[in-house]
Design a protein that fits this description.
The complex is a heterodimer. By secondary structure, chain A is of the alpha+beta class. Chain A folds into 4 domains: 51 residues; 241 residues, no CATH class; 172 residues, no CATH class; 190 residues, no CATH class. Chain A contains 28 helices and 26 strands. In chain B, helix 1 packs across helix 2 and helix 2 packs across helix 3. Chain B has a 3-stranded antiparallel β-sheet. Chain B is α+β, with helices and mostly antiparallel strands. Classes of the chains: A alpha+beta, B alpha+beta. Chains A and B meet through helix 2 and helix 3 of A and helix 3 and strand 3 of B.
Chain lengths: 897, 110
């Protein structure tokens, strides 16, 4: 019997059987009397159902019917599909990001055993005299400093705790190394890693071998491990690079191996191109300062991770290692004040790597997740509303079909098919939008950062989530109108009632209004969020940076890559500065070790001789900035006293420094010009005083700063960034500068060409991204909600055309007609506004840390949001309402549905 | 014991014991045999025929009828005969069980 049934799965077998049944019934019709046999169509239908595949036929019919009706109602289809596609697409894109940034573990063995070391202290300056901000960074929050960098010797304290850790390993990121092989030069990002780094990560090489403890001894090996991606990019075949000798900052290194393709280092957003033994720093950057960093217990720079022994949990590790770290720092503290505020170790789960990117993007991403979630909700509400309107319009059709014997379930199923089909089409389009969205998001988040390689790609989990959302949406929201439509009382719907009699529609009306309320409320939330982010952005743009950011061109030069060494480096810098200044269009030219804000850098402990004791008796640290002649003039930074640097502030001249007001004030001076400043054992004459300007970040408290002449640095800088002040359009000067550099030396390249304004924007990329995406999402929500409002009023007008006609015939003014058709939509909108206001005040608190300069309840932002919603809502409802007043009374009265 | 389930199937099988019949013939035969007490709608009977055919209890063949028209006639298969006997036994057990309860006309208690 099963096999016989299965046979009917074949369409032609089914068709043949169908013909057989038709023949048989026709023959019987001839034999029996008329009407003796009853409804033969139904009999044949039921007979076919016994084959067991009727549902397949029905599905086919339903799908065909749904496709037909989708084609017939193009506007409806387009509205539903686009709102769904946008909702689903945005969701998939954002979920892809959540997955890749927040959820995906490091591709190493047993990632759950990894921990990341961090510390917290009230005031870092007490224990540390300098800190490198290159990767781990530090944050100050409510007066507490948190950081993930340690003195090199702290690592040993962890490594000795063999009862707790299987391996404790460290690394340090260096952003710009010059990598040369076969006359091809690349600027690369490297990790200096301790010898046990790869053992701790527990990964196997893709080719060759990885760095081992024997490579990282006091006399380190000149070996390098390439990342798979970099090896492929540079050599075509990563494995083929093994054994080759390459130049790193002009020093020969041997490629010993390649990391596996999936390995991206310890930070998901920052993939290094190559790995060097930790102590190979002494080869790359020889000098006493480098040597010093390994033994200085006050210099915090190494990032540390550890693999815990099996069976040791993080709480126990925290207790034991915390105590050992405490005794280590306790020994490094030299004063009682320092002992009072020692950094306290804090272990974090390391399965997902260091959370640089996560910390930076986790909250914005959650905010975006919530925003797109709301959009999907709004889209769903809209679809439900559209389907409701549709069901109302089809009441008669459904009533007719019910009355001639169609099964209720059959009709529900058919309506369901339509909505599932709609959501599948929407979902497919949504995946396309997501694919595109992931690219856009990646480029938005990456900006112009060279090394940003976030591994975000659509994967099956994300697609599964999307598919589930899309089908569920169709089922849930297809079901409501379907059930409602078939619950209607048949008779009143069949009778040609004047539309407007609230026969079966009242339930639909209530649901429709509720959906409008929800849409308006959610849209308002999104609008408030967008307004808050927009206001934050404008506040950020209004920050006093301390110099004139407009009309400045930035570019970076790395003389070493062209083979310059020794004094020739500074000669080149100066030649270039003078020659660029001579270009037409260039007003002033200077240079600095980095563009401002520097993104990171070094702070050093400093004193000014002759100062009374500093207020709290605390040691003071200041940011070190290395700048060229006429820097302050070029940047339009007003000198409050003294002078700026000139080409005469060279290594042979007396050492000079320019300090900012904050540094001077920390030592109780209004004008410290002429006094002597001491950093470690070096002494400098203070020749100038400048107003405070930003140092590391755009958004941070002003820091004490000291500017040194780069010409007086002990060793020439490997790279300098030029600032060119122009009369207008900085980028117009790029061509002339490039030509000039080619003239001076064809081996020189212009790196990181951008305007100063664009550089500052990079610092607030996160906020720009949020403001842009937030506004885009809010706009999307607004449009969808307005479509909903428009649809409600339109169907309201359509339903009551007859009534309107009569009223107009009786002399009702247009005003009254408008009020008649608008009341429902306006009441719902007002209710939605109220709900939305409450909701957005509640929700906005969670975005507080993403805001700058405003409160989550910023009245301006809320007013803007409400105004935008009211204005566009009015347009959406007034268009169809105006149409109502143009109803021709005669035609309307005559209209019989 | 669920004899009511498939009651129609049982009636059809029982009717076809007499000899092959076409679909309408079966309906008429049941009506006649029950002296008009059971008037099975053709719309219900026909799917039942198809069901029984699918189960292999009856088979169908185009044949000429007494009146000279062609029609599809159904006859019992050996499997159908066995099934009928089983149904018969079950029905008797059920009917006598019901009869024991319903045997005398019930009088409502005051």
């Amino acid at each position: 019997m099963f096999w016989r049934k299965l046979r009917y799965l074949l369409p032609w077998v089914r068709r043949a059987e169908d013909r057989e049944i038709q023949d048989e019934l026709r023959a019987l019709q001839d034999i029996a009397g008329p009407r003796e046999l009853g409804n033969l169509t139904l009999a044949a239908e039921d007979a076919r159902a016994t084959f067991g595949w009727a549902w397949l036929d029905h599905l086919k019919q339903d799908v065909a019917y749904a496709a037909r009706s989708m084609r017939r109602n193009k506007a409806f289809t387009a509205l539903v599909v686009t709102s769904l596609a946008l909702g689903i697409g945005a969701n998939t894109a954002i979920f892809t990001f959540v997955e890749s940034v927040l959820l995906r573990p490091l591709p190493v063995r047993d990632p759950a055993q990894l921990v990341v070391m961090k510390w917290e202290a009230q005031n870092y300056t007490l224990a540390t005299n300098g800190m490198s901000w290159s990767t781990g960074g530090s944050t100050r929050d409510n007066g507490i400093t948190r950081a993930s960098v340690f003195p090199f010797r702290a690592l040993k304290a962890f490594q000795d705790s063999t009862d707790i850790v299987a391996a404790a390993f460290g690394y340090f990121t260096v952003e710009r190394l010059t990598f040369r092989s076969d006359e091809v030069t690349d600027s690369v990002k490297g990790h200096y890693v301790t010898g046990n780094y790869f053992q701790g990560m527990a990964i196997a090489p893709a080719a060759g071998r990885l760095i081992q403890p024997a490579d990282d001894l006091a006399a380190p090996e000149a070996v390098v491990v390439l990342s798979h991606a970099f090896g492929q990019r540079h050599f075509g075949d990563a494995g083929g690079a093994v054994g080759r000798v390459v130049q790193i900052n002009s020093k020969p290194f041997t490629v010993i191996g390649v990391t596996p393709p999936a390995f991206f280092g310890a930070e998901p957003g920052a993939v290094p191109d190559l790995y060097l033994p930790m102590r190979a720093q002494m080869i790359v950057e020889p000098g006493s300062r480098t040597d010093q960093t390994y033994v200085d217990d006050h210099f915090y720079w190494v990032e540390i991770m550890a693999r815990l022994r099996p069976g040791i949990d993080i709480t126990r590790a925290q207790t034991v290692l915390g105590a050992r770290f405490r005794s280590y720092v306790d020994a490094t503290a030299t004063t009682d004040e320092q002992k009072k505020d020692l950094p306290a170790l804090s272990l974090q789960p390391g399965a997902r790597g260091l959370d640089g990117l996560q910390r930076q993007y986790a909250r914005p991403i959650y905010v975006l997740v919530i925003m797109v979630g709301l959009i999907l909700l709004i889209a769903c509400a809209n679809i439900a509303n559209l389907l409701l309107g549709r069901a109302a319009a089809r009441q008669r059709e459904i009533a007719v079909r019910l009355s001639i014997g169609a099964g209720r379930w059959r009709i529900i199923r058919q309506l369901l098919t339509e909505s599932v089909l709609l959501s599948l089409v929407g979902g497919a389009l949504g995946v396309a939008i997501a694919w595109w969205g992931v690219r856009v998001l990646t480029s938005l988040l990456a900006g112009s950062r060279e090394h940003f390689t976030l591994h975000a790609r659509l994967d099956w989990t994300v697609l599964g989530v999307t598919a589930a959302i899309s089908v569920l949406t169709g089922v849930i929201f297809g079901l409501v109108p379907a059930v409602q439509a078939t619950r209607l009382r048949m008779l009143p719907a069949l009778k040609v009632v004047p539309a407007g009699a609230p026969s079966a529609g009242s339930g639909r009306l209530r649901l429709g209004s509720a959906l409008i309320v929800a849409q308006v409320a959610l849209s308002l939330c999104l609008l408030v969020a967008a307004a808050l982010f927009g206001r934050t952005l404008s506040k950020l743009n209004g920050i006093e940076v301390g110099f004139d950011r407009h009309n400045v061109l930035l570019f970076t030069v790395r003389p070493r890559t062209a083979g310059y060494t020794g004094p020739a480096v500074n000669t080149l810098y100066e030649t270039l500065r003078e020659r660029v200044a001579a270009l037409p269009g260039a007003e002033r030219v200077s240079l600095s070790s980095r563009a401002f804000p520097m993104g990171g850098g070094t702070m050093a402990r400093v004193t000014i001789e002759g100062a009374a004791a500093t207020p709290a008796g605390q040691p003071q640290s200041a940011v070190i900035a290395s700048v060229g002649p006429y820097f302050f003039e070029t940047m339009h930074m007003p000198l409050a006293a003294g002078r700026g640097f000139t080409p005469q502030d060279t290594g042979t001249a007396p050492r000079t420094v320019v300090v900012n007001r904050l540094l001077a004030r920390r030592f109780g001076f209004e004008n410290p010009v002429g006094r002597t400043l001491a950093v470690r054992q070096d002494r400098y004459e203070i020749v100038g005083l400048v107003d405070d300007a930003l140092a590391f970040q755009l958004v941070e408290e002003r820091r004490p700063m000291m500017y040194f002449s780069y010409l007086q640095a002990p060793t020439p800088a490997s790279l300098m960034t030029y600032e060119v002040r122009v009369t207008r359009n900085p980028l117009a000067l790029v061509g002339p500068v490039r030509d000039l550099m080619r003239q001076i030396d064809p081996g020189l390249a212009m790196h990181e060409v951008k305007t100063q304004a664009a550089h500052i924007d990079e610092a607030i990329r996160r906020e720009i991204t949020l403001a842009k995406l937030g506004s885009a999402f809010a706009l999307l929500a607004l449009v969808i909600a307005c479509v909903g409002l428009y649809g409600t009023v339109t169907s309201n007008v359509a339903r009551r055309t007859n009534e309107i006609g009569i009223r107009m015939a009786l002399g009702a003014p247009a005003r009254r007609i408008i009020r008649l058709v608008l009341t429902e939509a306006l009441v719902a909108t007002a209710a939605g506004l109220g709900v939305g206001l409450v909701l957005s005040v509640v929700v906005a608190r969670y975005a507080r840390t993403l805001l700058y300069g405003i409160e989550p309840t910023d009245p301006v932002a809320i007013a803007l949001a409400v105004a935008a919603l009211v204005a566009s809502g009015l347009v959406a409802v007034l268009i169809p309402a105006r149409m109502a007043t143009r109803v021709d009374p005669l035609a309307a009265v005559r209209q019989d549905n | 014991m669920q004899p009511l389930h498939g009651l129609l199937d049982m009636l059809v099988l029982r009717t076809l014991v007499m000899g092959p019949l076409h679909g309408y013939g079966v309906a008429k035969a049941i009506k006649t045999a029950s002296t008009d007490a059971l008037d099975i709608e053709f719309g219900s009977l026909y799917p039942a025929l198809k069901r029984l055919e699918l189960k292999g209890w009856i088979s169908a063949k185009w044949e000429d009828t007494d009146t000279g028209r062609r029609a599809k006639c159904y006859r019992l298969t050996p499997a159908g005969k066995k099934k009928l006997m089983q149904e018969h036994a079950e029905w008797h057990a059920f009917a006598s069980a019901v009869a024991r309860i319903m045997g005398s006309p019930a009088k409502e208690r005051p």
